Amino acid sequence: MAADLGELLVPYMPTIRVPRTGDRVFKSECAFSFDSPESEGGLYVCMNTFLGFGREHVERHYRKTGQSVYMHLKRHVKEKATGAAGGGAIPRRRNGKVFLDLELNRDFNGEDYEYEDEAKLVIFPDHFEIPLPNIEELPALVTIACDAVLNAPSAYKKQEPESWEEEIQVSRHARSLRQLDNGVRIPPSGWKCQKCEMRENLWLNLTDGAVLCGKWFFDGSGGNGHALEHYRETNYPLAVKLDTITPDGADIYSFEEEEAVLDPHVSEHLSHFGIDMLQMQKGTENGHHTDNKPRPRVSEWEVIQESGMKLKEVYGSGYTGIKNLGSSCYLSTVMQVLFSIPDFQRMYVGNLQRIFDYSPLDPTQDFATQMAKLGHGLLSGQYSKPPMKSELIEQVMKEEYKVLNWHQQKGISARMLKALVSRGHPEFSSNRQQDAHEFLLHMINLVERNSAGSENPSDVFRFLVEERVQCCQTRRVRYTQRVDYCIQLPAPFEAASNREELLAYEVKRKEAEENMRPPPEPVRARIPFTACLQAFTEPENVPDFWSSALQAKSAGVKTSRFASFPEYLVVQIKKFTFGVDWVPKKLDVVIDVPDFLDLNRLRATGLQAGEEELPDLMPPIVLPEDTRDNSMSSLDSPEIDEAAVMQLAEMGFPLEACRKAVYYTGNMGPEMAFNWIIAHMEEPDFAEPLTLPSMIDPGPSAGDSPTGAALLGNSPPEESIAILTSMGFPRTHSIHALKATNNNLERALDWIFTHPEEEEESDALSDMADTEPNDNAFSNANSHSDSTLSPDGDASGPRVKDGPGRYELFAFISHMGASTMSGHYVCHIKKEGRWVIYNDHKVCLSERPPKDLGYVYFYHRLSSS
């Protein structure tokens, strides 16, 4: 028999591998479904790629790859028999057959259930089975490979101890960090980079208190790298990311060590700049608190989770929960809402077979595959089945808690999707709680990047905002448009309808504090939703406004209106802020959010009769103090990395050609410049002296925009376009890249490499424009024809689905806790005319949906009929 098995396996020996260091063995979950060794059909692990497949999907992998040898894993779980004496549980019997390093997918009580594991090799296509272990009869290589697979930790258990959080070491600069006594105090909000005025991805240097932007990311987000530049100028090594400071620590980076580090003295270092991190309130994922003021938050937890009510569990299609992986409820709630939208269902679940059939060889790393997998898991009903009648009778006859434990809802695990969508993200890749609104925007970004050339379900959220900026002195105006996916509504305390009650509570609270008595029962501010909308639409001052009419800084005001209305409207209530002492503060408010919303009165009208536009001029270039006197010489001699020039010249290239190469590649290093030289060697002016493009060309600008965002219709600087086109990129592609990255040359270059399909997409949009009606839905406030193009009919602009501004509430996400970095999220979704609460793996009919305590609300557009 041994010879027979050896001969049988000889043709397949080249395809059988032993897992090496770094190989992940997916033996706990299928790459295409949520089947596991505990499922009825078990799990098949490929002995070459170590990917796991359920019974329905293993044949596909065999046909696609030709891999024939799989290890079939099956875990049998059964209830223990009770002993005759005393009726207690007998000791767990393992029978020597528990050898899989797996997490149980069921929440079994270890004292009441036992399980045993079964493994065998299966050879396709004939399904020939070889039971394991079988040391005597199998070739040595096969035995070693089987043992390695059985003893390897499951893929995600292996990742956890190697995550970036665990690897972080204490910085060698932490103990001896020198801090300048320069009087710098950091305010709790309103931060911006000191060099480019960016307001996101900001880092505080722990030596001198400089607030500067971080590096740019591959997706066009991030900053301009001024924090790193500051280190190169000063050698001040440590910086902390401003929006990550919690009572438990903060994200700290060491420029000198070039990695994320720990600072045991971070509290002292932050207090040097007026930041008291130790006073911040704490919360937990499961609702248990350590602070001494539990009453307002406990009440919130009870109301939002509908505690104390006998909620009826629901099962079937669309009623599957998602397991909490540890502070992952922000992901669960967002994904539940997204897959309640028909466009996402159609894109990922409707195209399930096509996505699976055309998935890459490693489907665990494919965004569409993992989205389709989660969508099918939530909508198929396959993982949300009610208990059988016989099981319900057994529940009454036997000890109730045991059977309840067996038959309660289990939900599915989104671990594979979470690992994929959070990869490389400093926040979402951690095990900390995150902001559900930020994760929603992150998912929309990922959906857009992975939908090139196909239907983009996130189109339903996209809309255009018209911003009207007016110079207060000249009364001239400028209209610009920007793309957005969500409106953020402030919660104005001054508009509370129970102001007298709030004032009386504040008096009682102060009296109790002075007399050392227990505080009174808290009172929540009740704010009308109309007041939130009013605060959103009111004019706001524009900081650092530069008037092109006056050619100087002046006072300016900005108002925002809807240039188009999305099919699905996302509304975030701005409940979170910072106190003056840097303590994160959640506004304890209730808002009477309506079920129906009419925003037609907020539709933009464009330039009105009698209004005069601001001139389209750029603000003057402000040079740093130390170079202002040499401004003319700076224009004559551009900034060129001479070290890179000499490095290229030593290779034998002409000096002037080397200077041009370094200049046209934006001083990005000799390797990039070398590639430029190779691409331009045959040009007749290759060795000619460098001729600078004009730097005084007054192109269209965002001079009157306070943020300097890339506005629709504005062209990037010609010199930046010239640099990219000189590197061989098409002009239209270069312009799109610069617009998408706020005219940042380095980020634009990376954008080009990550969007090679941009040209094809533009052609497709142009073809679509020929078939679209030429109605102008943007300029006419009464026009509500659904359009998938930009309102002005420009096919190269953003795709929007404009229509009437009447909406109905269909879902909302609620947060419990003192900060978005702690606490817990649940969501309520209206399905089949009833509100349903999704609380991790539990899915129940809602009795009293707490619509007034939500954080993010989702509306769908009503038909015009």
UniProtKB/TrEMBL annotation:
Question: Which intervals carry biased composition (Polar residues)?
Answer: 774-790
* Claim: Ubl conjugation is one of the keywords in the record: no
Give the positions the UniProt entry annotates as the active site.
329, 824
Q: Which residues form a coiled coil?
A: none
> What PROSITE patterns does the database record attribute to this sequence?
UBA, USP_2, USP_3, ZF_UBP
Q: Which molecular-function annotation in GO is an example for this chain? A: zinc ion binding
The record's EC number reads: 3.4.19.12
Q: Which residues bind Zn(2+)?
A: 193, 196, 213, 226
InterPro entries for this protein: Papain-like_cys_pep_sf, Peptidase_C19_UCH, Ub_carboxyl-term_hydrolase, UBA, UBA-like_sf, Ubiquitinyl_hydrolase, UBP13_Znf-UBP_var, USP
Q: Know the name of this protein?
A: Ubiquitin carboxyl-terminal hydrolase 13
Protein's organism: Maylandia zebra (zebra mbuna)
Q: What taxonomic lineage is listed for the species of origin? A: Eukaryota, Metazoa, Chordata, Craniata, Vertebrata
